[in-house]
Amino acid sequence: MQKSVTETSIDRHLNKIQNNWHGRLSLTYANRSGKTQIIRNEMQAPLKVQRPFYPEGKEVCHTAILHTAGGVVGGDRLEFNCHLQPNAKALITTAAAGKIYRSSGQQAQQKIELKVDSGAVLEWLPQETIVFDGAIYRQDLRVELAPQAKILLWEITRFGRSARGEKFCSGEWRSHSEIWQENRPLWIDRQWLKGGAKMLESPHGLAGKPVAATLAWVGEAVTAEILEKVRALPYETTIYPGTSTAGVTRIPNGLLCRYRGDSTAAARDWFVRIWQLLRLSFAGRPCCLPRLWIV
Of 169, 183, 249, nearest to 215 (Cα)? Predict the structure, then answer.
C-alpha cells in the first residue's frame, strides 16, 4: 500500500517564520508482477509527486516531481531520496524548469540520493535549471548503483536569464555528482562556477555561452560503434548554427557527454538523440518522451 506523509502544521509555521522551505520527497519503486509501482511516497512541501503514468506500458513508471513554491531562494533546503528495488524501471523528470532566484546572502541547497538495485534501471531526466544572477546554490547528487543496475542522468543549466540580456555576474553555483557501486566510485564530477568569474568567458570554461549540460550513462559499457554513432549526432540548431561545442567520452562502464552553447532546447534535443541510441541498444525499445515536455 502506498504511504503518503505531508508536512505538519508545525513544519508550515516554522517555514513561514524562517521565510524559507525545508522540503523533502522520498519515493520507493518496486516491480510487482512486471509492473513498476510506487510503494512508498513521503513528501513535505514544497515538494510533491504527480500521479504516475505509463505511456509505454506497465514496465516503466513515468513520474514528475513538482515544486509548488515555483522556485528556490537562499536558505531553502530540498532533499529527494529515491530507491528502485530489484528489476524496477522508472523515468523521473520535473514538472517545469527549475528556477534558482537571487539570494541576499544565504545558500540554497538541494540534496539528491538515488539507490538503484540489481536489474533496475533509472532514467533521471529533470528539465533545465535557470540560475538567476546573484543566486547562491549547491546541488549534491549521489547514486548507489548495484551490480547489473543502470542509470541515465542529465543536468542542463542556464546561467542568467539570457533571453532578457541577464548574465551570471554575481553569486555562486556548485554541482557535485557521484555514482558508487559496492563502495567503489564509478564517476565523480564536481563543478563550481562563481558569478562574474573569468571562467565564464574563458575557452576553457563556458566561452561566453550561457548553457552548460552533462549527460552520464553508467552501468553498462558502450561499444566503439555506439560511441561513434553518438559522436555523429548533431548538437546544433538552425537558430544557433556554429555556436555550440560538445564532447563525448567513453568512461569505464558507461558514457559521458558534455554540451556548451546558447540553447537549452538544443542541449535537450541532443541528449534525447543519445538517449534514443542507448535505449535501442540496451533495452531494445525507443525512448518515450514524458508528456510534460510536449507543448
Answer: 249
Write the Ramachandran bin of 44: left for phi over 0, alpha for psi from -120 to 50, otherwise beta.
beta
Give the C-alpha separation, 162 to 173, whole Å: 16
Amino acid at residue number 262: D
The reported pTM is 0.90
SS3 173: strand
Q: In whole angstroms, what is the distance from residue 232 CA to residue 13 CA?
A: 54
Domain around 201: 4-293
Q: Give the torsion through C-alpha atoms of 157, 259, 113, 68, to 10 deg.
A: 30
Place of cell 540520493: 113
Instruction: Give per-residue pLDDT as tens, 95-139.
Output: 999 999 999 999 999 999 999 999 999 999 999 999 999 999 999
DSSP single-letter state for residue 148: T
Q: What 3-state class would DSSP assign to 34?
A: coil
Domain tally, the chain:
1
